[in-house]
Amino acid sequence: xxxxxxxxxxxxxxxxxKLGITYDELVDIRNDRNEIKKIYKSIDNILARMQQDDLTTxxxxxxxxxxxxxxxxxxxxxxxxxxxxxxxxxxxSGEDAILAYMLAVLGIPFxxxxxxxxxANRPKEMSNTYFFYAQGANGTLVEANPSxxxxxxxxxxxxxxxxxxxxxxxxxxIDFNILSVDGLSAPGDISxxxxxxxxxxxxxxxxxxxxxxxxxxxxxxxxxVILNIDIEGMELEILKSVDFSKYRPxxxxxxxxxxxxxxxxGNRNVELLDFMQNIGYAEYAFSxxxxxxxxxxxxKLMIGEK
Length: 306
Description:
Strand content: 15-25%
Number of strands: 11
Number of domains: 2
């Protein structure tokens, strides 16, 4: 045994005598101490990551608040405490929360997020645009069901409400079927909807005038930041009628699944995905019901990428 080892053993025995413990207990304490050091190091690493996350979140929240205040000469009227982590979502599956994050990161004030909402349905519940309306934005809401118009006019006084049916061509008269489930009302043949959903009933069929997307955008006088399309299976037909060489909303929201009372897992509309990609839009997110697309060229310009 080396002299150094003997000296260490003497010190250990001396410590044991002072503490009133055995040598083996001292070894256990030393091992436990090493384990505790590892735990503390792990905790320090976790806290450091959490702090970094907090700084990122605070940076985004501060950016949102400053963007909103820039919209008002009188700062007292502008939102100052919009919390991106605690805000109300009105969409069916959180689509407005996705949009809010996207547009905040891109530096677009919420009050400037104009929209064209096709198939608006109800003013707040399951609306992808009401959050922005509540932040001071405005736009055009198109709803074919006349029984839904009074609520839209009452709750969305700052918006333009259009009681017409979206179609590829404006000014025609077509039959519109009002069903017992508001969101399923549609023109044309509804036999498949009724066959697949026996609980849904046809209430009545009414004549209604059509209007196309190109004419709606002309009437708005500007291309909206957000185009929301929820028109029960007519999405592709309507998209093909839009002049995307002239009118390119920054963001387009599309319903990507058929109506179902079950969770529609793995049932996205691939044809819509292909079409959007071909016209230069990339899918940013899928909520399980709707996809959120962004114009790639506009996005690249906004971030300074060639």
